[in-house]
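Ticket #129: bound-state structure for magnesium ion.
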Amino acid sequence: MAINILIVDDSSVMRAMILKTMRMSGLPIGETYQAANGQEGLDALEQHWIDLAIVDINMPVMNGEEMIDRMQENPDTKDIPIVVISTEGSETRIERLQGKGASFIQKPFTPEIIRDTIMAITGIGESDE
Ligand SMILES: [Mg+2]
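RESOLUTION: The complex was predicted; output attached.
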């Protein structure tokens, strides 16, 4: 089963790097969608079937934390797994995001970290090991 992924980051370079890293990680990737801020991310979630959201924190218009709050308030999106990929160094903020159910990956990251994190939260790929 392939997973459809939404990548939300205000840097197009970072979005491309995350996507490339995910493809290198060997995970079964289905459709991929990109958004440049939280509002675009919420719009994409309304328009497409998405199995996993990769979300940056610091973005203009709507940041990642507010996007995650909005996702949690909406019955249609509250169960979608979220991975936050950020340079965020504040333990308080990281813990708060984890309290909202998001997994956290620190930039810079490796394909292995991405693969292991996504496998852990989705269960995908475990039978292949
Ligand atoms: Mg950013």
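RESOLUTION NOTES: Residues 3-124 form a domain with the Rossmann fold fold (CATH 3.40.50.2300).
TICKET STATUS: resolved
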